[in-house]
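Input chain follows. Return structure tokens only.
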Amino acid sequence: MSLTARSEIVTQPQGDPVTLEILKNALESLADEMALIILRSAYSPIVRDSMDYSTAICDHKGRIIAQGLTNPIHLGSFPRIMQALTERFGSTIAEGDGFLVNDPYDAGGMHLPDIFFIRPIHLDGVLVGFTSALVHHTDIGGMAPGSMALNAEELFQEGLRIPIVRLYEAGRENRAVFDLLKANSRMPEEVMGDLRAQISACDTVGRSLKGLAAKHGAAFPALIEELHDYSERLVRQRIENMPDGVVTGEDFIDGLGADGAPIRFAVAITVSGSEIGFDWSGTSDQVAGAINCPITTTWSLAYAALRTVLGPGIPNCEGYMRPVTMTAPLGSIVNPRPYAACAARGVIAYRMLDTCFSAFGKLMPGLVPAGGEGGPTAVTFSGYHAGTHARWLVTDGILGSWGARAAHDGVEGISNPGANLSNQPIELMEARLPLRIREYGYAANSGGAGRTRGGAAMIRSYVIESEDAAMTLRSDRRRYLPLPIEDGMPGSPSLTILEHADGRRALLATMKMGEQPLKRGDVVVHIAAGGAGYGDPLERPVETVLRDIEDGHIDNAFARDVYGVVLDASGLVDVDATGLQRRELAEMERQQRIALQQGHFLEAMNATELLKIGN
């Protein structure tokens, strides 16, 4: 690898920088306002509580000019949806129109549950922009409740596929499209409620966007062009400050089912002058399951990774994307052929982000964290309320445990950098569903050891309180653990344990193929992967290890066998024994030290025998 550094170049907006900055902030505020409207008016917990949605404002050409503070893995979706919309409808787009779409192959969507609503905004009969909102809808049909069956092999098994259609035409509601969507959902009230929230957000902010365009008058289009150009100049300037060269990253996911083949991710990131390219050649082929990742998501993760390492302050508009190129072989899992199943593609998206961070860590050491939990676990429970034919359904995302950073321990309880999601409140879940949460917190001995420690794994246990229920599960990071940096230890493996009401216990596959039937009294215990460590654990200050013990992150045995910190019978540090223990650990084989760490985690989770038997 050859890397050559360059000096910083200062870039300023052309024209009036004050006006441009005010406009940029106004647009970003409007996109955030859309997000808040949806948050406060959505019906479903996956939107209202987990925040799995995004908002965007586009210019009159359909180019993104602002995105709300929502989900980063949606970054690349709006430009492709808008390109498909403007190419198909062009000059026929009229005031009062409203468009609906979710197709991930023919229209640039993400996966079928992610439905876009797009409203064109006109001022005095002239198109000035678009407001758009993407929402992950609770259920849009398909093989399994929640529309994310991992055993689906083609898109047609996953639910209702919507090409770009007019939901409104010149202000008139197309009732047939509403009825079609409602008829194809197991949870029609939630879907209709969330869709109305999308429409309200787009319409409310559309009026503000119209006012903003009127305020700037004839100068508005030119200001928007300068915003794109300014964003491009800033991105190019920051890329030029990176060293030229090629860096690579590699990572894996466990594969489908109990014994699925591992899936490899390989990226080569090339920095050349003011441009950057992502090449996924060498990544595994698409699979016969629902984790294939359409190219829109692959673009999104490249933007999200780049935005993370370039830092804040760059307008989030399409100019940001001009210096970026992508190579993703057709037929690979990051660019599957139509119409491969893709409903659970989120796990692929987060692994792509990890792989990019692995490469960027070589380009800019100390900037990116060690491997985290690998993205949110998605678990869907469903059944029928007692004595009725009313269905209940919830998709819960379990997150988050970041890897350690160069100078700080991993973040805990906060979403993976690529997600920006939120854990659902257990009180609301218990109030509306026949579920009870037995435990929700951090798993002991789970954060990968290091000079700085990986974030502790999240643990959540669900008690089934309906006579019959079913579950689908998408998780990862059991065989291929979160990757450490500079002699740190990997994070702990993810575990999903089914405790039957009769006392039997079973370890479920990370990506369960098909639904898992459940009965009253069954308990599903999910422990996400712990974040990986950064630096040698034997360099972690003794007082910091003591604080970890006091906080319940580790026990005394873990402190002794992993960090080399020995306590006497009174709980005080035995200085001589600690020095000896650290010297002995330093001479031990690395794999033996990793095994000691993982053994203490499995013992704390009462899962030692389960993991031997299960996977």
